[in-house]
Write a structure and sequence with these properties.
By secondary structure, the chain is an alpha/beta fold. The chain has a 6-stranded parallel beta sheet with strand order 3-2-4-5-7-6. The chain has a 6-stranded parallel beta sheet with strand order 11-10-9-12-13-14, with helices on both faces. A 6-stranded parallel beta sheet has the order 16-15-17-18-20-19, with helices on both faces.
Length: about 550
């Protein structure tokens, strides 16, 4: 069999795995891969910053349920990808980060953008934020490195992986080979007896759903568990999209953006707290007091690192694949759905009496957004107060349509995630909820959406400040420093300078018109909706600092 170059074999695998888009910023050390993508009719999505490219690859992986791929050149091209890798790690997304290196043969000599132990060692840098990080120093070892990377990305608790492939290794010829995406049975518990006994005996239980329930897409299983045992449900900020908010068993959120109903129930003497896919970090337990500690915790997690650490009470742990374990438990218990009819959300009416001096309320903005979006629209919440307004006030009508991270929390990540997800799901409305602060970190990726005609909607709440930081400092110390912009960003002008269609909205009527223009589009480029909101409005984040009482 005729030998092939390493870069050809790599791109052949992308094609065989059904990957349609690869993201990145060009550079000499990865140029053979970029040229070969065109030969195989895989679209290369040219980003504006490597971190944005990494976020886009992760959003693509999430939306298409496949492997995401991002290319970064050696040296700083690789270091710029580290934040995106860490964010993909927190979302358990299988993303292959490929970085270059000038030459394996010349390693140890002085080379520009060195990426080995003699310079900026990218393999070591990626180790803490990936499932696997390795350097392919000989073409003969390429197959084993690629196989191991894909296995680590795709099996068990999924996540990002990194391969550093030097330029001369990419150019070498080896015997061709074919690797299929791994097919491994999920890790499941062998005995659900104790868990079922706890559920059967509980008299005042609570289901506490985290982001892991969303990423596992365990929506049917969570609803079946709630209805069969008649368990009230609360969601963490990241778990918001796991359960329909109009369901009678839903009490609201807990943690930042949480509801008083949920807090009151947690104080009512919970005997069993069933935790699904939550690390129980400070953002998720914000407002949790000693009077809320349950008698027992039943926790479903992929791995044990953070189980039984935040709430010191007897904890029964079920490790392994969340969805598979929930299915196994429900089957063993012969669980059945209850007779619950979803509540009807009150209709939203535009405020026709707005004066020119009235600032838009972020709370009403989220309710207006919900009233106009289709039920299956996908939302990505960015890092900031804007997303916690959504956590508190945006209803989830269809599970699996809201994504937010409250653990790593990279500002601007939602911008790239929404671009990648729209490429993966062109027929779905994809909306990024972000703020003026996040936009100044990753907003140039709007140009990526313009150039590739990606019809993402960027919904930007602008109050001229880093609101979450400013309000937090103000309410904790009585003053804030370095969180208010003297010259605020004019989002619409910024977006238009990159070729995007943009609207600046200062009234509900203007916002409704902009949303009407934006919804239901499958092509034609992005639309940016700038919403000027009241800078004095108090965001739902203060449980980190104050009691809600």
């Amino acid at each position: 069999m005729m030998k092939k170059r390493v870069y050809t074999i790599l791109v052949e695998h992308f094609k065989q795995w059904g990957i349609t888009h690869v993201f990145g910023i060009p550079g000499k050390s990865i140029s053979p891969v970029m040229l070969e993508l065109e030969s195989f009719e895989i679209e290369y999505v040219l980003g504006r910053h490597e971190s944005g490219c990494g976020f886009e690859a992760a959003g693509y992986a999430l939306g298409k349920n496949t492997l995401g791929v991002v290319l970064g050149t050696s040296g700083p091209g690789g270091t710029n990808l580290l934040t995106a890798a860490a964010q993909a790690m927190e979302f358990n997304l299988p993303v292959l980060f490929i970085t270059g290196h000038p030459s394996a043969v010349d390693t140890g000599k002085a080379m520009s953008q060195e990426s080995s132990p003699f310079g900026a060692d990218l393999v070591k840098m990626f180790e803490p934020v990936t499932r696997f990080s390795g350097r392919v120093e000989r073409a003969e070892s390429f197959r084993l490195f690629l196989q191991h990377a894909i296995e680590q990305a795709w099996t068990g608790e999924r996540g990002p992986v990194h391969l550093c492939i030097p330029f001369d290794v990419l150019m070498e010829e080896v015997e061709p080979f074919h690797l299929s995406m791994p097919q491994v049975s999920p890790l499941v518990c062998s005995d659900y007896g104790q868990a079922i006994s706890l559920l059967d005996q509980a008299t005042n239980p609570i289901l506490f759903i985290g982001k892991g329930g969303v990423i596992a897409e365990a929506f049917d299983e969570i609803q079946l568990m709630a209805e069969h045992w008649k368990i009230p449900v609360v969601t963490t900020p990241g778990g918001k999209g796991a359960f329909p908010t109009q369901h009678p068993l839903y009490l609201g959120g807990f943690g930042l953006g949480g509801s008083k109903i949920a807090i009151d129930y947690m104080r009512s003497g919970v005997d069993l707290m069933i935790v699904i896919g939550s690390k129980l970090c400070d953002m998720q337990l914000s407002g949790f007091g000693a009077d809320m500690v349950p008698q027992q915790v039943l926790q479903f997690e992929h791995e044990i690192t953070f189980t039984g650490k935040s709430i010191l009470t007897p904890t029964e742990i079920i490790l392994g694949d969340l969805k598979a374990n929930l299915r196994g438990l429900l089957k063993k218990a012969n669980a059945s759905l209850g007779d619950y009819e979803r509540l009807t959300a009150p209709p939203f009416h535009l405020n026709d009496s707005e004066s020119d001096n009235t600032k838009l309320s972020a709370k009403r903005v989220m309710k207006l957004l919900r009233s106009m979006l289709p039920t299956d629209a996908i939302l990505f919440g960015d890092a900031g107060s804007h997303s916690f307004y959504a956590v508190e006030h945006f209803d989830i009508l269809e599970p699996g349509t809201f994504y937010l991270d409250e653990v790593f929390i990279a500002m601007g990540a939602a911008i790239g995630y929404s671009i990648g997800a729209k490429l993966a799901l062109p027929d779905r409305d994809v909306v990024c909820i972000t703020g003026d602060g996040c936009l100044m970190l990753q907003g140039t990726e709007i140009s990526t959406a313009v150039n590739h005609e990606i019809a993402t909607v960027f919904f930007v709440l602008n109050n001229g400040r880093l609101d979450m930081v400013e309000k937090g400092m103000s309410y904790n110390t009585g003053r804030s420093v370095g969180a208010v912009y003297k010259s605020p960003l004019h989002v619409t002008q910024f977006a238009e300078s990159m070729g995007a269609e943009a609207y600046r909205c200062e009234t509900e009527a203007e916002l409704a018109a902009a949303l009407h223009r934006s919804i239901g589009r499958t092509e034609g480029g992005p639309i940016v909706i700038e919403v000027i909101v009241d800078p004095e409005e108090i965001p739902p984040i203060l449980t980190r600092l104050l009691s809600l009482d």
